[in-house]
Amino acid sequence: MVAGGRALFHLPYFRARIDIIEHAGAVDYRSRRTHEGAPTGGFNARYMPIGLAEHAASGTLEEWLTARFSLYSADRRGAIFRGDIRHDPWCLAPAEWQLGRETLLSGLGLRRPDGSPLLHQADAVEVLGAWPVRLGQ
């Protein structure tokens, strides 16, 4: 996935060791970047749904964030690409989390925004994607 995302879609993906452990309705998620030459970074958190899953209401931020049907990226020369995607609407359950260690952002010279994140739990959704097309040729 990393090699394909980087080569075909020009996405800044990095190899990582990821462990996902589910228990008692909660999910422990642990990630550690292992990509040679990439900034170091890790992320540990536990999250759990705190309500019923349903489709996002029309016109809400949740709908806008999850009803994306195109992926945009740029290559190293600045050329822009668009890949169209299709998927059913996501069922989202409000969720809460407990953040453990997070050094992914600082490894890239970024800082985590203040405040609480907008957090939902969703089951997997099948996605059909088209090959990216260069825009403005």
Descriptive labels:
single chain; 137 residues; mainly beta; six-stranded antiparallel beta sheet; 3 helices; 10 strands; 13% helix; globular
Layout of strands and helices, then pairs:
Elements: H1 2-9, E1 16-23, E2 26-33, E3 42-49, E4 54-55, H2 61-66, E5 70-74, E6 80-87, E7 91-102, H3 104-107, E8 120-122, E9 127-129, E10 133-134
Antiparallel strand pairs: 1-2, 2-3, 3-7, 4-7, 5-6, 6-9, 6-10, 7-8
What does this entry show, briefly?
By secondary structure, this protein is mostly beta strands. It has one domain (2-134). It is built from three helices and ten strands, in the order αββββαβββαβββ.
Write a structural description.
This protein is mainly beta. The chain has one domain. Helices cover 13% and strands 43% of the residues. It is built from three helices and ten strands, in the order αββββαβββαβββ. Strands 1, 2, 3, 4, 7 and 8 form a six-stranded antiparallel β-sheet that branches. The mean pLDDT is 91.
Supply the helix-strand structural class: mainly beta
Low-confidence segments = none
Please bin the fraction of helical residues.
10-25%
In one word, what is the shape? Answer: globular
- Main beta sheet, described? 6 strands, antiparallel
Mind telling me the C-alpha Rg? 17 Å
- SSE sequence, one letter per element: HEEEEHEEEHEEE
Domain count = 1
Give me the count of strands. Answer: 10
The chain-level mean pLDDT equals: 91
Q: How many DSSP helices?
A: 3
Proportion of residues in β-strands: 35-45%
Distance between the terminal alpha carbons, to the nearest Å? Answer: 27 Å
